[in-house]
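Same chain as my last thread, 337 residues:
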Amino acid sequence: DKIGRTDLIHQNDHNNEIGLRIDPETFFDIELDDSDQTIEFKIFKDYARTDARLIDLGWDTKSAKSVEYGKTDQSMLNHVRNGVFFLLQLNSALRYFGEDYDETRLREVVALFVSHDIHKLYNNHNTFEEFDIPFQDVEQIVKTARIQDIAPNLTAEDHWCSARATHITSNSMTAHLTLKFSKNVRRLRVADSFASSASLGEACGMRTVNVFNDDSVLRDYELRHHRLDDVKGILTNFINKSISDYLEIRKYKLLLIYDDGCVYISPKDTEHVHLNEELIEELSRRVVENIRKSHPTFSNPDRIKDNLQFINNLGYYKPVDKDFIYSGAEKVVAAVI
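reply #2:
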């Protein structure tokens, strides 16, 4: 019932290394600027190289969650990406409150999350043996995917524990755990819950809240969110940004963005923000301001002038609707004059 080790690991015959088909420096279409010295960015750069190797290992075709079991389809690769990005964003948010992990600790939890679903590489239909995976396989996968480059101080035994004991199930192997894994397992479970949440409702649901409260640091915080009743494409992005910017100065730190809202973390004693007419007016102003900043046309009368349409039979100029709405009457008049 298990797939062989040679199926788990595809190596280049010439140098016994994975043959990368893509450049990990540009894979995510993000400019990697060495001037950014945040520990989250440095760890992200190391993870990006591992991500490319996970693709060569076939993690993008292996299922982490499936509609067959009432879940939203999600590959192992996307599940790992979601969890890694969440852990980095969470640590950045916690820095604002002075409770972030140092680089060594954050590297440990990120690397252990990458390896936590290795058991799903096996086609094992016997649930009692689901987590009974060979140590040698885990050791070889960690080496081949260069997961150890993310956290060099972790051992293969730490990753073996992660693959066998992160999940809270009756069949997980929770005996004889290493100290480093035991120290980080609660944060791993938080990341696993969020990485599996396909909607805003799931991200703020009881399963996530329970593992959140089981973390010794996170139990002093709570999850909060804003939800949009109507989603209108790119305009939704401007609305979400305007709301999150407003909430940030009120100690709501952004964690996740969904199409219909955002999830935040804030200390439990943080005052709740309530929707009222004054707040709606302020948020509307911020949305318009962010739209104007998004493109020079909306703030530059000369650019607006280039878009003016002359109606011959009526003898007047007509501005483009979007220019009038987002630039405002004052700048449109300036463009005409």
